[in-house]
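queue> pop job 88
queue> type: inverse folding (structure -> sequence)
queue> payload:
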């Protein structure tokens, strides 16, 4: 149970930090704590592969818990083994830093992006917890309600990171920022330029709050005072509205 809970927590952290790094062009590995966490997750997921070969599995058809090692190995190899190898392989130890490549393709971020595939295992981890934990306990603490709220916030975080990343990727210069505030209709004018006097150079906290405000407004009926400026942002806004 403790291992599954820890695995769920690490996957949730990946689901928050990776979109933030990609959408806001930030490298959290420069912070010692996140650098340590990154290495810890690498070896945790590697160890998880080996442990899955020795962890008893629940067979739904018979309702029994099978501990036969050969059966466990066959079921795991036919199931999520390949996915686990892809997302857990320690790429950072063998890939170069790729300093000349676009930032999105740099080894560290590409590895973390691959690890986000572990998000597909969240439903199975939650089902495992439901099988182990007494349903009355789940009801007592309102776990399902809290889970729904957490999912809403995390999904809003993803949309905010995408919204900011799309605006950031359209480029823009200091002249564009000035002309955008002057009312010029520029193809490369962005919501960042129209909303902040300093454009993408505005403080990170302010840009994140504004992005989150737009994302949550798009997810609800409240709407947002922030609007798309160019065609790319309008397309993203249309997708959000749908």
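queue> result:
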């Amino acid at each position: 149970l403790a291992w599954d809970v820890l695995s769920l927590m690490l996957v949730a952290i990946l689901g928050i930090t990776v979109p933030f790094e990609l959408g806001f062009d930030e490298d959290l590995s420069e912070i010692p704590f996140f650098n340590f966490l990154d290495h810890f997750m690498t070896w945790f997921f590697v160890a998880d592969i080996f442990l899955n070969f020795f962890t008893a599995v629940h067979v739904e058809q018979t309702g029994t818990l099978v501990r036969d090692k050969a059966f466990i190995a066959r079921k795991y190899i036919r199931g999520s083994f390949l996915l686990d190898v892809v997302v857990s392989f320690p790429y950072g130890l063998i890939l170069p830093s790729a300093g000349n490549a676009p930032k999105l393709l740099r080894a560290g971020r590409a590895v973390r992006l691959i690890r986000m595939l572990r998000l597909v295992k969240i439903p199975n981890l939650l089902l495992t917890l439901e099988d182990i934990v007494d349903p009355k306990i789940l009801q007592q603490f309102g776990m399902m309600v809290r889970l729904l709220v957490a999912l809403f916030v995390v999904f809003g975080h993803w949309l905010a990171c995408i919204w900011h990343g799309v605006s950031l990727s359209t480029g823009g210069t200091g002249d564009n920022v000035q002309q955008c505030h002057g009312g010029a209709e520029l193809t490369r004018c962005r919501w960042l330029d129209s909303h902040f006097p300093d454009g993408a150079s505005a403080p990170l906290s302010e840009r994140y709050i504004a992005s989150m405000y737009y994302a949550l407004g798009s997810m609800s009926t409240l709407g947002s005072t922030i609007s798309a400026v160019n065609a790319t942002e309008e397309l993203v806004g249309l997708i959000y509205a749908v």
